[in-house]
């Protein structure tokens, strides 16, 4: 119960293309399942509405916007808020009257009560089975009757062994598999031997975990140390370097696959698109610029790939203190405090990156020139 009333699920009245619905059989709809979605909770009733006692989450994710109108309907499945438990849910896909029935949304009605609201949290879900087409209701009593019927169908269906298995779906595993890490670091060795040692250590830790390297393509300095440590152990290395920089940063043959590009902009976009996570080691202006560009892109909603800072010998202590000042002064949103993780140990940093859930940036419609291929 919530607020002294039985827990229920609320289904919005939505518009649906009747012809499309008629042309699609239940078998055809079920053939699309399961569907998996991961996105940010944008609106809804949070832990529950006072009137309906219904914890409801609205999501706006591109994956289901690509479905045709015949996908509109009421479904059942499993969902998890942030790193919470996997819970039975009723889900509706349709055109939301909040957006003038022009924008399709996904609403997740969770058969659970929450102690607090979960707006802006990440929601992961698996849509497993179809209940019915969307409908319009002439009265609240009709709506409540439909809700109770949907709950009954969902609870019974979610007890079946072939449906229970989706409760352990990989989408609910908070541990991310890192295929490639993009490492930003200096093409110089620095004055302390600890910097080069950390480069070797990071490369070895990546190799042991089967993590490939995407980097700036140089073979000198910390950059070269990381690349050789990965490559010499049989790991995959991709270096991306502008032709103009090659004489300065490549000594002898390149390490692994070397991709030559014509500009710094092309280099940065290629590196970012190829990576699952980003790591900043000690470096100079170029490293700072690359680190902050990835942080800014995350803030703008261009990517949600984890960002890590390898703080060797306290190299980034003053920078981190400056960022604390930016947060305290109100120039950076408090929710972006989780935009990166920090550690002095390469192995520990990789573990943090695998488990880290990035905050959501702005919900903006970026064009193809700005959109980043998402490997995470």
- The percent range for strand residues is 15-25%
Distance between the termini: 37 Å
Q: Which segments are poorly predicted (pLDDT under 50) over 5 or more consecutive residues? A: 1-23
Q: Please count the helical segments.
A: 12
DSSP strand count: 13
Helix content: 25-40%
**Rg, nearest Å:** 24 Å
Structural class: alpha/beta
Please give the order of strands in the largest beta sheet. 10-9-8-7-11-12-13
- The run of helices and strands is HHEEHEEEEHHEHEHEHEHEHEHEH
Q: Assign an overall shape.
A: elongated
Largest sheet: 7 strands, parallel
The average pLDDT is 81
Structure description:
The chain is of the alpha/beta class and about 375 residues long. It has helices spanning about 20-25, 25-30, 60-65, 140-155, 160-165, 195-210, 220-230, 245-250, 265-275, 285-300, 315-330, 345-355, and strands spanning about 35-45, 55-60, 75-80, 85-95, 105-110, 120-130, 180-185, 210-215, 235-240, 255-260, 275-280, 305-310, 340-345. It contains twelve helices and 13 strands. Helix 7 links the parallel strand 8 (about 210-215) and strand 9. Helix 6 runs parallel beside helix 7 (about 220-230). The longest helix has 18 residues, at about 140-155. The chain is elongated, with a radius of gyration of 24 Å.
